[in-house]
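note to self: dont lose this again. the chain is below, predicted strucutre after it. 226 aa total, dont forget to put it in the shared folder this time
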Amino acid sequence: MNVIVQTPTPDITKSTDFYSKMGFTQIANSNMFTDGKTIIEINSERFARPGIKLIADSWSKEVELVKALTKVIQKDDGYLLGDGTGTWIYLIESSESPSIPENCAPSLFGNNQGLTIESIDIEKAASIWNALGFKTVAGKVEQGWISLVNNGGVVLNIMTPNCCPHLFLNPSISFFNGTNNPQIIETIRATGIDIKEEITHFNKENNVDNIIMSDPGNIGFFIFND
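---
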């Protein structure tokens, strides 16, 4: 199974410029970018929506399980469903899928820790993602989060309401950079790309030590110290 984050765009040039300036590598002959861990596809079709694409030869078995949990719409290339978070999931049936180039450098955002979504019904969301091949490996609902991973090593974090005191876009990608985060933030500032939110909530000195970015299609990026 391959996993791709789909980002729509009103302006392909503007979206391409965002990912280029943020240090993502463009995959040859495509509108896809990667930081070595996540593949992001810029989709200029007018009916495109932010979401997560899962690519496999067939989804027939999984779809039968998912139909008991949520509505599933059949499409020419597979299926479309939601996980209760507002995140659209595209199940693409194909024997071909993009691959990440070897020795691909990280983006300016730093250490990629996986996809992150927020859900008002974390149990339902987890059940849907479990049916699609993701296994819960860490966290507890009582702690406000769980972490899942698929057989390709893609990490998906699901957060509960009132867990994150900042803007939250579904889906987002989290980057945890420890004590290097202030330096990374300054590098991002130098690109001239607008920062969506500067966060001081976790800092007693009221310093900006975490930020949120978003691309033109409203995919979120959490650049945090932990």
